[in-house]
């Protein structure tokens, strides 16, 4: 059971369709009106789970999601003084780790489409204050139309986000666009395994561990969504192909957590 529960983690993600943005300079925090029903439904879903999903992450993964997130940030190669983007930032776990990496001379832009998730992240920032967290900016935005200029970031991370974006090729193209040449994107998510055993284990865990636990918080339907989102996601090989089609020169997908999680590392 420990291996099964250690495989389960969920984070906020996806994108809304918004008006065109000015590419010449970054834009500050602001609201975007959702004009896509699919994106709107996902936005509402992640807003509903925002108050409890940090606690559920810890319980369901036995704390292992923290290790996977540290690996994701490490593979981004973010360093002191860098300007970095955490896309689909949810309640801010990767943004906080990036903040420590880049230090006070660096910048962290943390973008999510859920205002509730961003509020949760900002509240956590106040509760666990560290001086370096001053370098984080929380931005309500669109993964399909990022409000940043070309070649703006030294690294980009996405934690449990790309899987839920309504247009994955476009999102990957946006990540490529805002990265500087030679820089990396590190993308952590559930692994859509080609192994029948692994995929069966993952499905069993969601039905018998995740959903029953989430039902105690009145979130049965919200966590049932997890299973379908994984089944509709891309395999590691497909993610590598997606990154290369977006323009990345190198893309490699690594399996984590016994193949139940995966991390794509793509170099511009």
From TrEMBL:
Pfam families: Ubie_methyltran. GO terms for biological process: methylation; phylloquinone biosynthetic process. It is found in: Plastid, Chloroplast. Its main location: plastid. One of its GO terms (cellular component) is chloroplast. Its EC number is 2.1.1.329. It catalyses: demethylphylloquinol + S-adenosyl-L-methionine = phylloquinol + S-adenosyl-L-homocysteine + H(+). Gene3D superfamilies: Vaccinia Virus protein VP39. CDD domains: AdoMet_MTases. InterPro entries: MenG (IPR032904), SAM-dependent_MTases_sf (IPR029063), UbiE/COQ5_MeTrFase (IPR004033), UbiE/COQ5_MeTrFase_CS (IPR023576). Keywords: Chloroplast, Methyltransferase, Plastid, S-adenosyl-L-methionine, Transferase. GO terms for molecular function: 2-phytyl-1,4-naphthoquinone methyltransferase activity. PANTHER family: 2-METHOXY-6-POLYPRENYL-1,4-BENZOQUINOL METHYLASE, MITOCHONDRIAL, METHYLTRANSFERASE. Involved in the biosynthesis of phylloquinone (vitamin K1). Methyltransferase required for the conversion of 2-phytyl-1,4-beta-naphthoquinol to phylloquinol. Belongs to the class I-like SAM-binding methyltransferase superfamily. MenG/UbiE family. This is 2-phytyl-1,4-beta-naphthoquinone methyltransferase, chloroplastic. It comes from Urochloa decumbens.
């Amino acid at each position: 059971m420990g291996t099964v529960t250690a495989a389960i983690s969920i984070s906020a993600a996806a994108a809304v369709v918004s008006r065109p943005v000015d590419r010449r300079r970054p834009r500050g925090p602001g609201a975007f009106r959702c004009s896509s029903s699919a994106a709107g439904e996902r936005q509402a879903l992640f807003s509903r789970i925002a108050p409890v999903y940090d606690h559920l992450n810890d319980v369901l993964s036995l704390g292992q999601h923290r290790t996977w997130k540290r690996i994701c940030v490490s593979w981004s190669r973010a360093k002191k003084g860098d300007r970095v983007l955490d896309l689909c930032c949810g309640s801010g776990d990767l943004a906080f780790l990036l903040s420590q990496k880049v230090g006070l001379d660096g910048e962290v832009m943390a973008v999510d489409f859920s205002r509730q998730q961003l509020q949760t992240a900002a509240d956590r920032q106040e509760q666990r204050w560290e001086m370096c967290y001053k370098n984080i900016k929380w931005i309500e935005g669109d993964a399909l139309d990022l409000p940043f200029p070309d070649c703006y970031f030294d690294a980009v991370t996405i934690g449990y986000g790309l899987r839920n974006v309504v247009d994955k090729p476009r999102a990957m193209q946006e990540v490529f666009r805002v990265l500087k040449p030679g820089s990396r994107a590190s993308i952590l998510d559930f692994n859509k395994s080609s192994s029948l055993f692994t995929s069966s284990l993952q499905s069993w865990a969601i039905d018998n561990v995740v959903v029953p636990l989430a039902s105690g918080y009145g979130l049965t339907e919200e966590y049932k969504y997890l299973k379908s989102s994984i089944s509709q996601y891309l395999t590691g090989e497909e993610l590598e192909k997606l990154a290369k089609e977006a323009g990345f020169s190198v893309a490699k997908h690594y399996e984590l957590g016994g193949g139940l999680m995966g991390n794509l590392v793509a170099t511009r």
